[in-house]
Amino acid sequence: MPVFNRVAASSYYEIEILSGIDSFHRNIESAGRDKQGFIWFVAGSLLYRYDGVSIRPFEELYASELGFTEVNRLTTDDCGRLWLETRNGLFIFDTILWRFIGQDTFSKGLLGEYVIAIFNQGKHLFVATRSGFVWQINGYKKRKVLGFEPALSELRRPVGHCLLADDNRLWFAYNSLLFFVNLKTGIAQHFQMPKRLYQGLDDIFLLKEGLLLRNYGLGYLTFDGRQFNKIHLKGLDIGDMRDWAHWSFAEAGKIIFLFGDGRYFEYQNNLGMTLISQNIHDVRRSLFNSKLNQLDFKGHEGFCATEHGLYSLVRRNFSLSYWNAGTARAIVKQQDKYYVGGYAPLKYFKLNDLSIKESAPLNNYYAFLPIGQDTALVGMEGNFLGLLVRGKFSFLSYRKAKGTREDLSTMVYSLCHYRNNSYLVGTSGGLWIYNRDKGLVSPLRDKIGRLVGMGERINSIQVRKQVISFTTDNGYFDYLDGQVRKIYPQQNERLQVYSHTFYNNKVYLATKGKGLIAIDAISGHVDNYGTNVGLAHNVIFNMAWVDNLLFLGTYRGLSVWDGKNFYNAYAMHGLPFEEFNQASVLEDRLKGQLLIGGVLGCIAIQPKEFLHSLKQQSVPQPVLSRIAIGTGSSTILRTYTPNANQDTVMFDKQIEFVNLNVAKIDAYKKNYKIYFRLRPLVKSFQELSTSGEINISDLRTGEYELEVKAVSDNGLNVKSKRWLFYKKPNFYETQLFYVLITLGIGFVLYAVAIMRSSQLKRDKKLRLELARDLHDEVGGLLTGIAMQTDLITIDQDSARQNRSLEKIAQYSREAVQTMDDVIWAIDSRNNNQGSLEDRMRFLVSQILPMRDVEVQFDINLESAGTLPQYVRQNVYLIFKEALHNISKHSPRGQVDVYLKIAPRQLMLKVSNVLQVKKVADSYARHPRHGQGTSNMKRRAEAIGGKFEVEKSATHYRIELVAKLHAKKLFYDLFN
Q1: 433-465 burial, b if ≥16 CB within 10 A, otherwise e?
Q2: Terminus-to-terminus CA distance in the chain, angstroms?
Q3: Percent of the chain scored above 70 by pLDDT?
């Protein structure tokens, strides 16, 4: 069987999207693409989503409970909705809002219905249900376009379509009836279908004046509105009508046929089915051996859901001719034929011929050099040289020149015209000169007589202005007048240079590993262009300048450089191979074609058209596919899919770990890369990992900006998107907290200042009180002592002197007691409550030591804390004043002392009950009056307490109640 070429304005090829869910589950039943670019598919009656990185079941993506367990088929619409035909009826899921559609205006009467067929026309979606209606959905509106009698027993559904529509008409095949609706007027008709035609119906296609029907038993038939007619397509031998024999689909006003043996046909979509073109497609034959579950073609791409995975069926958008001639090492044109050399028989083909033919037997035809009209010198890898004249090949005889000591290598890799009828021959061991007239081969020597390039493989040779330039596996050199110079790289560095060419005073080197090297012939300045600036690969095998464009065949794809930017083509663009070969390039200016050889043959392209198609490439918009949040990488609290319209995401304050999954839309095309930065954590862009994940650990409170950009491999097409993430703060991380802290610190500083000022005031007040107390109490006593001393010196009566001495002693004891009381009151070491109790008991023993008074203490200390100094001092002085009053006015009787100190309150009660007979006399002699009561009230007010006093002829009682803590702090600070 001959090997076919592919000569077409454009043809079809496939790209594998998924080989299946895994190696054991490969059958894809239905598939579609949503508005964001995610691929949804049904496998094993379950719904899955593919984001270019991973496959996830829908039940994992959707957190709530699903209303169905099995999905039969899915259809996507242009609003981003999934129309799911399930065992439980129709469900509609909005992938943008990430929710199921409820009983909205357009969905009312559709949800839960069992579907016969759904067709997405683009502008409109059409749904036929078993309730007997066909609905037209336009965005979020619907209208009924057809009513029909449902047949409960009719469950058959073809592999292709049974419902079709455009802007003006609708066709629907159901229950042996063919329905037609004029969508403009609403007029409906129906036609009876032959039973055999309906039972074997496989697909229907819109024609301009009718309908094309595919029947797997009858073949193809047309319907013109009156009758069904079997057709025989011109140039097309249908043969087997099963899906694995051929595919057929409608595209852009044409009906396309693809056959498993490589044939490709285009017909006009009219009733006559006019043949437009026929050619060979590039879809693998093995794909036709798979069961076809769905073929849905839109625009320049379609989905093929098969039992062996999901594929993209793509129409190439540039002209390309392909000859699968095996490895193409060299190309030359003679007459109207192109001869391809390689490790095989010498082959040739014509631009418009489908076959590849042999011209010479098996050999290694490595290099061609045209030397005349339809004449070319042939470099052989092993047989030195040959000659190709009008397609006839012959070996050239040769012998070494006399006196040549060097061994001649017969492995020739490059050829170049030298002088007159002499040619430079690059071998695996150096440069030689071949004189065609004499058949002599002599070495090219340097000044010291050494073979130029000795021991090195000469990859390319050129002669310009008597200067010989050549490349080897050691670099790029030139030779002039016996002098050999290594131009690039440096002397101690080795670099394989496959080819070189001159353009605009620069020499360009195709290297292995360093990409494209450009050296200025005047200044010697070197520019390096690699994958970092958009080159397809850093290994370049061949190159050619065509109309100011440099075409470079690399290890992975074909690059075009316009002097500023690189544009790359790969297998996903329709190239039949990606690895090219050394020196295998030929420009045919007459035909406007550039032929380039590679490991799987030779291709021919139209240079400018090819570049134009590459410039139309675009990259998808970045999309977040999944967010996982938790308190740690091993403690995920929630995983969810973000709303497509959501660009701000809030995280709760307990979240410490975030995992962001970025989708790689159209990842199977491999024509772009994704970069991201996460400010303030990652300030510069870095490439996204193959897992598509961005992890944030120890997430701190604040705002984060994620920017993701998709960049084409040449860096010219860029699309970016930003998301804002915000973690809610704990209260201690809020601005309010810091404001309160600031205010608190300010208040403390202010309080300290006030306390300092108050302390100074209290110290001054204390000194004044101390001076006053000492002056009033001790000063009076000392004055009495002085007066008694004066009386002793004046009065000589011993009895009166003794009384004066007793008074002096009494005054001295009282002075000591008073000073002791003053010192105890101001000493902060006595602030504990027990100290107050002890002092009160001591004071009773001092003031009422010999009195006929019975004293009863009732002490209740509920709080074990300390008392402020000013509280202790004033309580003590109030108690002391009360005892003095009792001592002066109630020499006999009973004294009850009650003291209670609770956490928030202090209570002091002192009561004195006199004997009845003596009370009146005592009270009459010493009526109770003076400044003692007013002093006690003043001291009670000083500690914020309430003071009550009760006086009578037989009874004397005081009561003090003081609130502690709240007022204590206030008095401590500001008094």
Answers
A1: bbbbeeebbbbbbbeeeebbbeebbbbbbbeee
A2: 115
A3: 89
Q: Are strands 115-120 and 475-480 parallel, antiparallel or unpaired?
A: unpaired
Q: Are 374 and 335 in contact (CB under 8 A)?
A: yes
Q: Considering only CA atoms, give the Rg of the chain.
A: 54
Provide the CB-side half-sphere exposure for 939 (13 A, CA): 22
**Rounded to two decimals, what is the model's pTM?**
0.75
Pair 390, 334: CB distance under 8 Å: yes
Q: Output DSSP code: residue 92.
A: E
pLDDT in tens, 295-349: 988 777 889 999 999 999 998 888 898 999 999 999 999 999 999 999 899 999 9
**How, if at all, do strands 133-138 and 141-147 pair?**
antiparallel
Give the three-class secondary structure for 924.
helix
User: What's the rounded Cα separation, in Å, for the pair 49 and 625?
Assistant: 10
Angle at 557 between CA 551 and CA 560, to 5 degrees: 25
Residue 784's pLDDT is what?
67
- Could you report the per-residue pLDDT of 547-576, keeping only the tens digit for each? 999 999 999 999 999 999 999 999 989 899
Residues in contact with 65: Cβ distance below 8 Å, sequence separation at least 6, in sequence order: none
Which tokens sit at 482?
Answer: 């016996």
Could you give the percent of the chain with pLDDT greater than 90? 59
Q: CA of 760: how far to CAs of 659, 661, 769, 880, 939, in Å?
A: 61, 67, 14, 27, 20
Q: What is the dihedral of CA 66, 69, 74, 79, to 10 degrees?
A: 0
d(CA 235, CA 35): 40
Residue with tokens 């336009």: 138
> Omega of the bond prior to 680 within 30 degrees of 0, cis?
yes
Lateral strand order in the sheet of 89-94: 71-76, 81-86, 89-94, 99-100
Residue 27, pLDDT above cutoff 90: yes
pLDDT tens-digit map of 194-252: 999 999 999 999 999 999 999 988 889 999 999 999 988 776 666 655 555 788 999 88
Show the DSSP H helices in 176-253 as ranges: 195-199
